[in-house]
């Protein structure tokens, strides 16, 4: 479970995120969307403990990220848009390293399973410099999934993946949600979010504009416009499209 | 002309915006203080002396003249150094010709209607500011810039020397690529170049052997050998071979304007020939430049050590020297990871085999050379290297937080379920273990080879063992304090270390910061050493009173090391606290 209360982040005079509050329960997949500069990445970084919020609190599975960061982070997998890998560790050594950090006993079987699932088995002795971007992304995902996290935070998780990889990634996210993980995904690919997310949070200039179950939001907008998609809703509430206007 | 204007616009606007960004950064107090200290430093050591006549400083004070023999020796040594570097451009590299274009330059310039010569001119022009700045700094630190006579000659001379290196490096890379395209492998080229160079110099030496001074005889007489080598370089046909390089070296050394102008002609001819060689070469550098730019961005955005990415064609790698279990101290995972970054020495049996070989050679050599001048030389060099590794090692062995902060992997570390002290401990242990291994090896060599000082009496094996114990305790403990200080500085001034791809490294405020940090580190080391030294003196006096000076030294070294390790433990806790509370993203936006 992810609980966020009054999350605010200020850089000097610039208010990046303002008083954000929401909850993601086990099994829910929250899509975090917003125009460029809306504060999505800042929010995700605060939720992952990478940067401290200026105000507010974040709880991951009941652990306060500010007061007990280690316990909170044990439940977490953060998967950034650009895979951050260690240049001098091979694919398998990345998994060994992740296992040690998260103290995953008997990780080998699970690691092999993940490598097979992500089609990285043949590359287990390769360094990141020898992998394509998509493979690096898959390795980052394998490391994130190794300790069976109960909180998953994805920043543009589908970037760099091929169509088959995208489908498997979507299935993988949904499977982990079904197994009880609370998931947040930030992406500009709204039609993909529509397929994966149970809930949606739309940000604009650091402020929460819309939050709720995807089905409810679609239903609200479709009462006015029967064929409205998430993309049209997004354009409307963020004032980015022709049909922009206030939230109904 | 429009292309040249566009490239000039790019260069000028980039420079202007870079300066403006740095000025804006001065709004943060720590950068402002750094800026003020930087300006004061530049004023005190550079401008005040350059303008000494007007401001009444010591700029007009002449420095003592060096002896002609020393100047000649330096000139020959410089020429040999230059020759080795030029030869290195032909022998060492294994990559294709590539120019250091940024990814943005590649995106905008490569598809643009700019000729290959235009791109080369753009790169050559953009390098010159860096070469001039380097020349200025070298002249400053060599003391020439502070002199009333010859400052401009030093700067110009160094600039022309560096330009020669730059052009030759580029030209050699073009020829290497040309040879590669025609099926000449790296080893064939290396063998050919080394063979030609070796043949030419051996021939020249044989030709003029009768004029050469007699060989000094004793291999341990380093001074004698160096003197002989300088004389050989001045009396045999080797002199003619080195002459063009000596002109280049002489230009940077001379204080005589007439001599400088006399040398200018031939050196300009050499540079012009190099320029024509580079411009007329018809070797494609674009593809390799694109790969190099991509690799540079990768290595800047990830944790890496000791150069760019290694592409090994998918060969199977030996596992790291020890197998990391999934359970145990969490911080050790970071140490394990960082040791992987230290290179192949920590994979498979490479390091162990090297270690056994070093020990065998050291023991065998110590026995075989006992009492000779060569043994004393080896021992002395080992002691000097030991001191160097203790004092300077921590700033060089950067497989720790400094590397993480230099890329973007600090975000990964921040998201890991580790306390701050665990992160800092895990990061610091890798360079510490490496330095400790090096210092133990050097200590072993030093006590094995060095003869006993005359007034020490008989120095048997157990006494040498005590000295080794002392060196093994003291060196690593001082280095650990140094590592704490280095990493502390990086955490306190992260913008100093954080270098995003394409981000400039810093301006004069960084110069000030570096000085603040340097002075802080020296003070920190002093503060750490004073109580440890005090404890050491007391322990030595007490133990030596009962058991003698040798045992007193050994026990005191252990006591000093214990104090320094305790101080380091406190520092690691403090740095961990700092790590938990430092918002590095704010430094990105600074």
Question: Could you characterize the architecture of this molecule?
Answer:
The complex is a heterodimer of chains A (248) and B (590). Chain A has 248 residues and is of the alpha/beta class. Chain A has helices at residues 40-47, 69-74, 91-102, 107-117, 133-145, 163-178, 190-196, 214-222, 230-238; strands at residues 2-11, 14-24, 29-33, 55-60, 63-64, 76-79, 151-155, 182-186, 199-204, 207-213. Chain A has a domain at 1-75 and 150-157 and 182-248: P-loop containing nucleotide triphosphate hydrolases (Rossmann fold), CATH 3.40.50.300. In chain A, the strands form 2 sheets. A 6-stranded mixed beta sheet of chain A has the order 6-7-8-3-9-10, sandwiched between helices. In chain A, strands 2-1-4-5 form a 4-stranded antiparallel beta sheet. In chain A, α3 packs parallel to α5. Chain B has 590 residues and is an all-alpha fold. In chain B, 75% of the residues lie in helices and 0% in strands. Chain B contains 24 helices and no strands. Chain B has helices at 2-25, 29-50, 52-55, 68-91, 103-109, 116-141, 151-181, 186-207, 222-235, 238-253, 257-280, 286-301, 331-341, 350-368, 373-391, 393-396, 401-406, 410-415, 420-449, 461-492, 494-497, 508-547, 549-581, 584-589. The model of chain B is unreliable at 53-62, 301-314 and 498-504 (pLDDT under 50).
Keyword list:
heterodimer; A: alpha/beta; Rossmann fold; six-stranded mixed beta sheet; four-stranded antiparallel beta sheet; 9 helices; B: 590 residues; 24 helices; globular
């Amino acid at each position: 479970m992810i609980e966020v209360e009054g999350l605010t982040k200020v850089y000097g005079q610039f208010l990046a995120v303002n008083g954000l509050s929401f909850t993601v329960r086990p099994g829910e997949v929250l899509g975090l969307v917003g125009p460029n500069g809306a504060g999505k990445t800042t929010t995700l970084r605060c939720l992952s403990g990478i940067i401290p919020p200026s105000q507010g609190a974040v709880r991951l599975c009941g652990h306060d990220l500010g007061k007990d960061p280690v316990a909170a982070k044990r439940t977490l997998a953060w998967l950034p848009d650009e895979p951050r890998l260690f240049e001098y560790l091979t694919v398998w050594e990345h998994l060994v390293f992740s296992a040690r950090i998260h103290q995953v006993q008997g990780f080998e079987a699970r690691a092999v399973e993940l490598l097979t699932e992500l089609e990285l088995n043949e590359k287990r002795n390769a360094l990141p410099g020898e992998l394509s971007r998509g493979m690096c992304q898959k390795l980052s995902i394998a490391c994130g999934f190794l300790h069976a996290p109960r909180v998953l935070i994805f920043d543009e998780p589908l970037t760099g993946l091929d169509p088959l990889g995208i489908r498997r990634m979507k299935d993988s996210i949904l499977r982990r949600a079904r197994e009880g993980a609370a998931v947040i995904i930030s992406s500009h690919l709204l039609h993909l979010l529509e397929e994966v997310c149970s809930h949606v949070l739309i940000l604009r200039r650091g402020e929460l504009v819309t939050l709720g179950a995807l089905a409810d939001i679609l239903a609200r907008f479709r009462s006015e416009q029967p064929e409205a998609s998430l993309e049209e809703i997004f354009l409307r509430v963020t004032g980015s499209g022709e049909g922009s206007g206030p939230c109904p | 002309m429009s292309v040249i204007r566009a490239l000039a616009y790019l260069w000028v606007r980039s420079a202007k915006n870079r300066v403006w960004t740095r000025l804006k950064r001065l709004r943060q107090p720590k950068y402002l203080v750094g800026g003020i200290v930087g300006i004061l430093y530049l004023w005190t050591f550079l401008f005040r002396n350059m303008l000494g006549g007007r401001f009444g400083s010591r700029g007009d004070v002449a420095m003592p003249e060096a002896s002609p023999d020393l100047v000649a020796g330096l000139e020959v040594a410089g020429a040999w150094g230059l020759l080795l570097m030029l030869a290195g451009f032909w022998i060492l590299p294994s990559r294709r010709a590539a120019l250091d274009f940024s990814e943005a330059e590649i995106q905008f310039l490569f598809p643009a209607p700019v000729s290959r010569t235009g791109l080369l001119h753009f790169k050559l022009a953009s390098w010159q500011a860096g070469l001039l700045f380097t020349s200025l700094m070298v002249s400053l630190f060599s003391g020439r810039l502070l002199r009333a006579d010859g400052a401009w000659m030093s700067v110009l001379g160094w600039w022309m020397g560096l330009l020669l290196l730059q052009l030759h490096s580029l030209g050699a890379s073009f020829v290497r690529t040309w040879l590669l395209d025609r099926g000449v492998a790296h080893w064939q080229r290396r063998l050919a170049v080394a063979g030609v160079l070796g043949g030419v110099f051996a021939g020249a030496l044989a030709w003029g052997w009768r004029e050469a001074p007699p060989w000094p005889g004793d291999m341990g007489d380093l001074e004698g050998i160096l003197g002989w080598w300088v004389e050989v370089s001045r009396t045999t046909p080797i002199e003619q071979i080195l002459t063009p390089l000596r002109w280049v070296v002489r230009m940077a050394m001379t204080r005589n304007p007439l001599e400088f102008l006399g040398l200018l002609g031939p050196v300009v001819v050499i540079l012009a020939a190099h320029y024509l060689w580079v411009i007329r070469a018809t070797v494609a550098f674009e593809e390799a430049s694109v790969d190099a730019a991509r690799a540079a961005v990768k290595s800047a955005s990830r944790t890496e050590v000791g150069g760019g990415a290694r592409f090994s064609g998918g060969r199977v790698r030996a596992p790291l020297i020890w197998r990391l279990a999934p359970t145990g101290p969490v911080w050790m995972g970071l140490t394990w990871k960082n040791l992987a970054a230290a290179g192949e020495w920590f994979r498979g049996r490479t390091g162990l085999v090297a270690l056994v070989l070093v020990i065998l050679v050291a023991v065998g050599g110590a026995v075989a050379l006992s009492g000779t001048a060569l043994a004393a030389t080896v021992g002395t060099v080992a002691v000097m290297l030991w001191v160097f590794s203790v004092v300077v090692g921590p700033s060089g062995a950067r497989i720790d937080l400094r590397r993480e902060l230099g890329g973007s992997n600090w975000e990964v570390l921040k998201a890991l379920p580790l306390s701050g002290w665990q992160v800092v401990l895990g990061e610091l242990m890798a360079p510490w273990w490496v330095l400790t291994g090096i210092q133990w090896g050097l200590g072993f060599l030093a006590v094995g080879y060095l003869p006993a000082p005359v007034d020490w009496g008989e120095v048997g094996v157990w006494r040498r063992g005590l000295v080794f114990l002392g060196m093994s305790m003291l060196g690593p403990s001082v280095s650990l304090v140094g590592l704490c200080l280095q990493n502390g500085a990086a955490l306190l001034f992260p913008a100093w270390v954080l270098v995003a791809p394409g981000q400039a490294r810093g301006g004069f405020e960084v110069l000030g910061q570096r000085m603040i940090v340097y002075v802080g580190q020296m003070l920190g080391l002093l503060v750490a050493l004073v109580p440890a030294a005090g404890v050491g003196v007391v322990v030595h006096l007490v133990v030596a009173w009962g058991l003698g000076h040798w045992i007193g030294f050994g026990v005191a070294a252990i006591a000093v090391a214990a104090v320094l390790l305790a101080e380091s433990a406190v520092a690691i806790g403090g740095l961990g606290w700092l790590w938990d509370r430092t918002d590095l993203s704010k430094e990105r936006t600074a």
